[in-house]
Each structure stands twice: as structure tokens, then as C-alpha cells.
Amino acid sequence: MRYYSTNHQADDATLREAVERGLAPDRGLYMPQETKQLPASFFEHIDELSFQEIAFEVAKAFFGDDVDEASLKHIVYDTLAFETPVVPVTDNIYSLELFHGPTLAFKDVGARFMARLLQYFIKKDGLDNEQVNVLVATSGDTGSAVANGFLGVDGIHVYVLYPKGKVSRIQESQFTTLGRNITALEVDGVFDDCQALVKNAFMDSELNAHMTLTSANSINVARFLPQAFYYFNAYAQLKRDGKLSYDAEGKSNMVVCVPSGNFGNITAGLFAARMGLPVKHFIAANNANDIFYNYLQTGEYHPMPSKQTLANAMDVGDPSNFARILALYDSNWEAIRADISGATYPDPRIRETMKACHESTGYVLDPHGACGYQALKEQLSADEVGVFLETAHPAKFKEKVDVILGTDIDIPQRLQDFMRGTKQSIELPNDFQTFKSFLMKQ
Ligand SMILES: *Cc1c(COP(=O)(O)O)cnc(C)c1O
Prior knowledge:
Blueprint: E1 3-5, H1 15-21, E2 30-32, H2 40-45, H3 51-63, H4 69-79, E3 86-88, E4 93-97, H5 107-125, E5 132-137, H6 141-150, E6 156-163, H7 169-176, E7 182-188, H8 191-203, H9 205-210, E8 212-215, H10 221-224, H11 229-240, E9 254-259, H12 264-274, E10 281-286, H13 291-298, H14 322-328, H15 333-339, E11 340-344, H16 347-361, H17 367-379, E12 385-390, H18 398-405, H19 413-420, E13 426-429, H20 432-440
Parallel strand pairs: 4-12, 5-6, 5-8, 6-7, 7-13, 9-10, 9-12, 10-11
Antiparallel strand pairs: 1-2, 3-4
Helix pairs in contact: 3-4, 3-11, 4-5, 5-6, 6-7, 7-19, 16-17
The structure holds pyridoxal-5'-phosphate.
């Protein structure tokens, strides 16, 4: 499979090139040239398959041209060594819990898959004894997923840049206590400064001649495409439980709602639908960062500086995967509106939602999932079944959740283990030359 750039100024790339580069040379995002339909028989019997079996079929459609079957199966089965259960919250609203992986958030899936795929390419083709270096700027969640996904993977070193003092202790412990091939860099600045340092590093020719650099955020095809797996798994579970019905055209009554920031997760869902997954409709739920919501209303896209909110992993003012959504729909606003509706919630509404849901159902939402749940509450009709993606475990935001709900929620063992580790990080000033000479010495 070849991958084209959404800016159409760069040559098409192989999968390996797309994964190793992250961004295309023309600053566009890579997209697969075709989206393979899965056969009707797959959907008829999907409820008899395990998550790993489902994901392997989907992975073959994406990556089967470029990775041999046995290796791909190994990558998929290693990535998905945990479940993504669909849990009923109300009569017709379900939570797709994506937080049963190593760092208790959905980014674990893409990060682990990308790590294993890169490792496969390095082993297969060799890289002249060079190592691949992953640079990642984080405000919390991305760094932990990437660090744990790549931990102990031969031939790859990860540098996590994070803003000193601006990341919660729980989050920090998930990428500063690992050691081995993971280096945490504590930058004296804010998240945007970390991101700028990483961007400058990718553009510095001397540095790129010295070492192979790549990124591991959702611009990378190997990180965002595998997120399609769990949409199929959600459908399989609802089908198994007899919750779905179909119209004359075979469309199901399943509405999927995705709490969105950079829109990588929902874009993976749109790919799933293109492959034949019978989703009736998508909802993109936003916090106060309402750029996409406004685009749906007006047809105009106005990036803005991000606003800080309770659901901070969605604090994005210029969603990087918007370019992919435009590419999927040939920039046709009407067509995008026909498939996706929007929602936007300021912090007080997120708090109200978490409280109301907890009181009436007992279910503990995290602030991100709360946006998804509330959008379904408001937009679902009586004949539909709604699934929202619960993108992180509420314990990752324990300080906030306990204050809002008046609870003392349990911290899962896995998080406690991270918090017992010893912090190892290197302090850096917010200065590109210092960062560059640090990398040049590696
Ligand atoms: C990253 C993240 C999101 C946003 O996902 P996108 O793919 O950027 O839209 C939502 N919730 C949580 C908990 C996240 O970590």
C-alpha cells in the first residue's frame, strides 16, 4: 500500500517511510491510497470472534500488503493483550472502556502497535546499526502511552519532553520512572515550548544527518490507524448481546460518540465505517475548544490558541487530523455534516454531567468521557443505541474526579506501581541550541 500526503506536494511513500517520517516532507499527513472493504461474511460472524481475531482481520486490510501475515498477527496480538469492554451506563448508552491497557488510556493501543511495527521494519531491513529516535512532546497522556509502548523495544530510543511542574504526579510517574530506552526531559516551559523544540528538531538538517528522528503522535499512520480496531470490537459486543437493529439498507442503529482533541481517534472510526462497519452516525464531542464544532455549524475553520479545561487531553486549538477528515470527504462540508455532528461543553457542564451520571447510574466518568456521554444524552433518539469512547480511566484524574463527585476512587494497582518508582529525568532550559547539543551527544 502506498501513502499519499494530504498536501499533495510530496511523493507517495511506502508504509515504512510513512511510519519513520511521521509527517510528509511537504508537512502534510499521510493517508492510505485505498481503504479496503471487509466482506459481508466478516460482519455476519464478527460476534463469534475475539478482539484479537477481529483486529487481525482489520490489520490485514490496512497493513497486509507490507507486513507478512505471521509477523502482523504477532504485532496485533502483542498490542491487544487486554480487552475493550462495552459497559451499559443507561438503557441505550454504553461506555466503550479503552482504559484497560498499560497506562489506562486509549493511546496505549496505537503507541504499542507503532512500536512493534517499527521494530519489525528495523529487524527486517536492518538500519546499518543505527537506532530510531522517537521525540514526543506531552502534556501528560501521550508521553506515558508512547514511553510504555516503546519500553524495552530494541533499536528504538524515546525522548519524552514535558513541561516542568505542569503535569500531574500520576502522569509524570508513568514516563519518568521507566529508564532503559526511555529518557524523560523536563523542560523549563509550557507544553507549547516542548512541542516547538520537537518541531525544530525535525526541521534541523544537521541533527537529522546525525540521527534518525521520528514522531509518535497521532499524525503518525501507525499510531492512529490501529485505533480502528476497537470500533469493530464495540460493534461485535453489541451484536452479540442483541442490542442492534438494522434499516432496509443494512445500516445499524449504532451511534458512536468520540471525545476529541486532535481528532485522530474519530478519524480511525471514520476509516472503520469506510471499511464497512455499519455505524449510523458519529458525534465529535469537544470541551470548550470548539473549533470543529464551529466548522460544522458554519463551514469555516478558524484555528485558535487552545483553552485549558478539565478534559485537558482535548485542549487543542488546531486539530492536526482535521486535514485527514477533509481528505476523506474531498473537503465537502455537507458530506462531513451528514456523517458527523458536534457538541461542545465548558467545564461547568462537564462537572454537572459527571455528577448527574454518577448519581443516577453509579458510573464514574472521567472528564473526557463525560463530554461523550453528555452528547449522547442530548442527541440520541429512542430507536438508537449510543456508544461513547471512555478514553481514560477516571483514576488518572483522581484529584479532579474525587472533588467533583465527593468520592475516594480506587487507584488501580498498575498506577500505584508507577507511583512507587523513582523519578529519573534530565532538566533542560527552554532553548533549542541546548536541546540540540544534548541530542548531538547521544
Ligand atoms: C488524547 C486523548 C483524547 C483526544 O483524542 P484525539 O485522538 O486527539 O482526538 C481524549 N481523551 C483522552 C483521555 C486522551 O488522552
